[in-house]
Write a structure and sequence with these properties.
A hairpin with a 4-residue loop joins strand 7 (97-104) and strand 8. By secondary structure, this protein is mostly beta strands. The protein has two domains: 38-116, Immunoglobulins (Immunoglobulin-like, Sandwich); 120-162, no CATH class. It contains one helix and twelve strands, in the order αββββββββββββ.
């Protein structure tokens, strides 16, 4: 009779424990580590040839990272002992619109967007993607072919610099 009472008491204690504290959790494998890798770029848009700085954090420590622009490799970088890296590359000559920049190290891959804008044409020199700074207006003529250096730009006979 003692065994039955003891068994019933253990059952009631176990039931009370489960009701109060829930089922015990047995040790399991720890959850897989989630990557904390991030990338950021500056600027977020520009014409083809624009210098883009990409900063990565949370990548494989001292690991190699590959940077792609629309799946074409544009740069390679090595992360430091903290998993951070920085790299500068130029926007490729692609048509205007939204494009994808990615950084991958074999364990983590992160993406961000870059918008290629239409290349500006400077009417004063006809060059694509070049805007001349406007520091004043100067008209030079009758110099007989002599070149003069004005405000960082070579100007010549009958040249107009605005």
């Amino acid at each position: 009779m003692v065994k039955v009472v003891y068994g019933a008491a253990c059952f009631i204690f176990a039931l009370l424990f489960v009701c109060l504290f829930g089922l015990p959790v047995l040790a399991a494998d720890p959850p897989a580590a989630t990557s904390t890798a991030t990338i950021s770029i500056t600027p977020g848009s520009g014409i083809p040839g624009t210098a883009i700085a990409l900063y990565g954090t949370g990548f494989k420590k001292s690991g190699a990272a590959t940077v792609t622009f629309d799946n074409e490799v544009v740069a390679e970088a090595t992360a430091d002992a903290f998993g951070m890296f920085a790299v500068i590359f130029k926007a490729p000559a692609l048509k205007p619109g939204d494009h994808v920049i990615s950084a991958a190290d074999g364990e983590s891959t992160r993406h961000t967007g870059f918008r290629i804008t239409a290349a500006a044409v400077d009417a004063s020199n006809g060059e694509t993607g070049f805007t001349r700074p406007r520091w004043g207006s100067f008209a030079l003529s009758g110099l007989g072919g002599i070149l003069i250096f004005v405000f960082g730009v070579w100007v010549g006979r009958n040249a107009v610099f605005e």
